[in-house]
Amino acid sequence: MPGMIDTTLFGLLHDFFKVYLPNQRHCSEHTIRAYRSSMDALLEFVKTEKQVELSQITFEMLDSKMLCAYLDSVEKNGCGVSTRNHRLKCIRSFFDYAAKFNPTTVIYFAEIQKVPRKNHVKPDVVDYMSETATKALLEQPDAPTRKG
User: Fold this and answer.
1) CA–CA separation, 17 vs 23, rounded Å?
2) 3-class DSSP state for residue 72?
3) For 70-110, how does the pLDDT look when each residue is reduced to its tens digit (9 = 90+)?
4) Residue 112: is it exposed, middle or buried by C-beta count within 10 angstroms (0-12/13-18/19+)?
5) How far, in Å, CA of 57 to CA of 51, rounded?
6) For the CA atoms of the chain, what is the radius of gyration?
7) Following DSSP, what letter does each residue of 80-140 receive, concatenated?
8) Which residues contact residue 23 at a Cβ distance below 8 angstroms, ignoring those fewer than 6 apart?
9) Domain coordinates in residue numbering, the chain
10) What's the mean per-residue pLDDT of the chain?
11) Whether the model pTM is above 0.85
12) Angle at the Cα of 45 from the Cα atoms of 75 and 51, rounded to 5 degrees
């Protein structure tokens, strides 16, 4: 079994979840769990797509094309646009952290920034009943009776 190729990625992930989010940003357990879930799912997706062991994943594999493919798979698996955008936010947060604490990763942060948020689709406009139809509907109950 080959050893870890990119110790930078996993070292930064460890520090992000164990030091930065809880101690410096004072995030709640729920927030940390959501961020971890997003990163875990991305890494699992990359592992499957590239057919490599988890320990062999590198920053180079986490490019904008891979991230777009991952986010598309999130939507295809039944999640909505808001979930997709939240996962993108979580992943960007990690890359922002990595760029601040290890200048060699700035290029990867810039690559991830290419992936845009997805806009929500506006719902169809609802046609309302005409005034005449509304009056007819309201005149139907027999007001003097108990059921009316």
Assistant:
1) 9
2) helix
3) 999 999 998 889 999 999 999 999 999 999 999 999 999 99
4) buried
5) 10
6) 24
7) -HHHHHHHHHHHHHHHHHHHHH-GGGHHHHHHHTTSPPPPPPPPPPPPPPPHHHHHHHHHS
8) none
9) 7-120
10) 88
11) no
12) 145
Does CATH place domain 7-120 in 1.10.10? no
Average pLDDT over residues 14-29: 94
CB 58 within 8 A of CB 47: no
Task: Please identify which residue in the block is written with the tokens 């601040």.
Answer: 100
Sequence-distant (6+) residues with CB within 8 A of 41 are 70, 74, 87
SS3 of residue 14 by DSSP: helix
Q: CA torsion 70→41→103→3, rounded to 10°?
A: -110
Residue-wise burial string across 22-44, b where 16 or more C-beta atoms lie within 10 A, e elsewhere: eeeeebeeeebebbbebbebbbe
Give phi and psi for 115, each to the nearest 5.
-80, 115
Owner of token pair 């039944």 = 78
